[in-house]
Amino acid sequence: DAMVIQNPRYQVTQFGKPVTLSCSQTLNHNVMYWYQQKSSQAPKLLFHYYDKDFNNEADTPDNFQSRRPNTSFCFLDIRSPGLGDAAMYLCATSRDSTSGNYEQYFGPGTRLTVT
Amino acid sequence: AQSVTQPDIHITVSEGASLELRCNYSYGATPYLFWYVQSPGQGLQLLLKYFSGDTLVQGIKGFEAEFKRSQSSFNLRKPSVHWSDAAEYFCAVEVLTGGGNKLTFGTGTQLKVEL
To answer: Is B99–A101 a contact, with Cβ atoms under 8 angstroms apart?
Structure first.
């Protein structure tokens, strides 16, 4: 089945220690998104890639970076995690909106704990 | 700017009873609307979507939603709730950006089902 895969499902990191979360997709979608979801809150968009074009949300902290080396993979890098960055990180994909309206497909998420 | 309001933070229903989850949106153009469901520790699963056409849309798992432009609402309904429906439900409005589609989520409604 075509899907969105996130690794690892659970990640524990130390305060200030860089961490990378991974997302891959078999849907061949050209748009990939990263959301942050804190406990009992709605998902909040951090940024998205439209093909190789990176689109950062205005309020996303500089501490968060992303890389998309090819269509299938996208990474979320947190350069110096703070306690406030503990959250579920959701990756999603979609076809691009220039050819119509398409829903986003979500991965299962990575639960990040910062100690 | 677009926004989504889900007035009910928690709802408890008995198994077999009917369900209605409320969603109100604010958006200046034609809205594209979604309902997603999230089980604990999991990603988001699309229940249904409204892009245009018939204002009553059918989704998976027996859910339906009705778009009412005059009330800026997109309420989710199910005639008979099952215990497995216990989860968090998010309503979202989509904004087209000429590449990726940006979702703005409501704060979610936590559904509890009593046996």
So the answer is: no
